[in-house]
Amino acid sequence: MQSIPCLPDLSSHHEESSILGSMRLGKYTEWFNDVFSPDISTKCEDILNLLSQTYGCKVVEVTIPELHQTRTSHLVSIGSEALAALAPHCQSGNDKKFTLDTRTNLALFRSFTASDYVAAQRLRRRVMYYHMEIFKTVDVIVTPTTGMTAPLIRTRALENGETNLKVTGSLMRFILAGNLIGLPAISVPVGYDKQGLPIGLQIIGRPWGEATILRLAAACEALRSETKKPASYFDVLKGH
Description:
The chain is α/β, with parallel strands linked by helices. The chain contains ten helices and five strands, in the order αβααβαααβαααββα. Strands 2-1-3-5-4 form a five-stranded mixed beta sheet. It is globular.
């Protein structure tokens, strides 16, 4: 039995247009607009409109239940697993090499109990069920990549690090599906805010749905009209 390829064939423009035209994009508007700046939701909305106008993609309103509880499950799960992975370093005294913000977060993670972790895994399973139900009516779920654009890094933070859980929460607002339940996701640049900081659209797919999100991401990149090279830039492919 031939396996389904994870990489789409983007060589045929006619075939791509036909596939994209039948694609249903799930959008939870209340969550989509829960961002620090309206520039973020506006730019993401603009690219969705372009996809609809150019290819005929259909935006479908969906609801993702228990988002607040999901964030708690995410914190407990990822925090507990990070602490377990770093336990050998902490026990050998190498935790002193961590920055102060990392050590502060690890101290918070140590407050979680086994019962907390088990409860988080039960909720994790429920969150997966919710998403599988949503994927019965849509092909992907779309959100902004982050709840805010890049925050200012203060000079003091360069030496000692900085713990700002409010900022961290805004930056990680939309990564729950990828981080907590392992769904494939990709971020595509879609524009800039009024300060010139980049904004991204996140595309979340079904399990093993990499081909679908890559295809849609390629279409978004083709529609992007504005690209700026950062003042500080390093080309990872060319090594400079």
